[in-house]
Write a structure and sequence with these properties.
The chain has one domain (about 5-140). Helix content is about 50%, strand content about 10%. It has six helices and four strands. A two-stranded parallel sheet has the order 1-3.
Length: about 150
């Protein structure tokens, strides 16, 4: 499974991208609003507003990640549960959004850890299906179909 910070960032990024679409399902909007409100209430210093304006922006994703890393959100069961609810709603009702922002996950069963970082995509950036992770897997600096400069 994703490390806790990556899961929350992924939920916020895909949630913002999905919830802002005019055709977004109410369950996604509600789950995203719930996660956003929870983080803003418990961790006031985390700036989600900038991410909402441009959820595909790598610098804005990094800024939210950095803000979250300075908190104990990785051990906050309430936030982690809400992030999981949002990711499940997106997977069921708007799976194409995960591909737009660069991550798609299905049936991850656990094992050790899957860490995904630094992804920019317009189209599939990472697509993990039916995984049972036994050791650590790090996926970094994926760019897929984008026009930004390649990683250094």
């Amino acid at each position: 499974m994703l490390d806790p910070i990556s899961m929350v960032v992924t939920a916020l990024v895909t949630g913002a991208a999905a919830a802002l679409k005019p055709t977004a399902e109410q369950a996604i909007k509600d789950a995203y609003a719930g996660l956003k409100e929870l983080i803003q209430r418990k961790y006031e210093r985390v700036n989600i507003k900038a991410l909402e304006e441009k959820p595909k922006s790598k610098p804005r994703q990094d800024s939210v990640r950095e803000d979250l890393e300075e908190t104990d959100v990785g051990q906050d069961e309430e936030v982690l549960r809400q992030a999981q609810v949002l990711l499940q709603a997106i997977e069921k009702q708007a799976p194409e959004v995960a591909g737009e922002v660069g991550v798609k996950l299905e049936d991850i069963k656990g094992g050790a850890a899957l860490r995904i970082q630094d992804i920019i995509a317009s189209g599939t950036g990472v697509d993990v299906k039916n995984a049972e992770i036994q050791g650590d897997i790090d996926i970094k600096q994926v760019r897929s179909g984008q026009t930004n400069n390649p990683p250094k």
